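User: My advisor asked me to double-check a structure prediction for Beta-lactamase-related domain-containing protein before group meeting. I don't want to rely on an old file, so could you generate it fresh from this sequence?
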Amino acid sequence: MSTTSSTGSVARSSLSTLRFTDPQHEPGWRHVVVPASGARALPVAPRPVSVSVAGAGRWHTFEEWLAATWTTSLVVVERGRVVHESYADPAGPGTLFLGASMTKSVLAHLVGRAAGAGVLDLDDPVERHVDELVGSGYEGVRVRSLLTMTSGVDWVEDHRDPASPAPRLLGAFGAGGDSRALLRLVGRGSAPDDQWSYNTADSQVLDWVRERATGRAYADDLALLWRDLGCTDDAAVACDGHGVALAGGGLAATTRDWARVAMLAVDGTNDLGTRLLDVAWVEAAARAPYPFLAPGRLPSTITTHAGFGLHWWPLDEEGRRVVADGSRGQLAAVDRRTGVVAVKTSLWPYDDALVDRQARDLSYLGLHALLDAAAPPPATTKEQRQ
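Assistant: Sure, here is a fresh prediction for Beta-lactamase-related domain-containing protein from the sequence you gave:
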């Protein structure tokens, strides 16, 4: 991987450089550009960040770990400064990487801002905002249940099975279809909040509710967040034939801008210290709301390393470490105590479930090691007084 340590802004990449991270995603997807209107380059202070990763029955050097997990980019930020940045050729700082389901964690930020502004109550039933869902499996489901993916609707998220509803939903974005018409057909499966099921339909309904509450489409709301975060590059988000965004998986951005998204999960402030999310929201997003969502309690086919909070994945029960997770290794890990952020994009094989699982496990182990290695040294007594 090549290493970049430039401090200036990077040239905009063309949309053809999107790194698609799911077999269902095609470069021909319709998209909307999200402008970077308040660009502020993060300071760069490169220093060695090298780790040994124990996983898959052996030690991996840093370079071996990058290769074993098909890494396409890695950015590590400590106290708002980029301390490591590397890319696999031909990618670079201006490449837009499709975050896949990391997009869901961005949606959580938007929902948190709507809740903080008082226009959305998490205990609202879905149909209070989207009456088109009366009579569907989503009638009577609270917004909070969408955030925790405990809606109880009849849904199977299996992108390896073309008969699963998830590929049909994604197909609406590749063929210019109507994704919301499909959501209206989703039926009831079990009582809300009794069990968890990974569910992109929940994310799409959550965005529908957010849109009605704020009066802003996903791309428009995201443009405001992009401005407030100081993101330096335009992003792009996939949309269906009616202009509805794939809020559950269609956002592509540079790795540095993905890092800014993750930095907001530390304490709800941007790099200037401006508060963008309430502290209570950030704390809630980083913790599992039910015992069956705690780290290690999710189905092992999903992960044994994380739990599920408010569209973020807690890595411990204290809410110290949290991650945004997208298919084929799109990961943005945060240590909320030290402020260290590590963003890793990847492109590992997806069709083989065992390869997918081992690469994800090894990625999580390596990200923990990176967060440890990049943590600032403990403050001295003098620094604590200051």
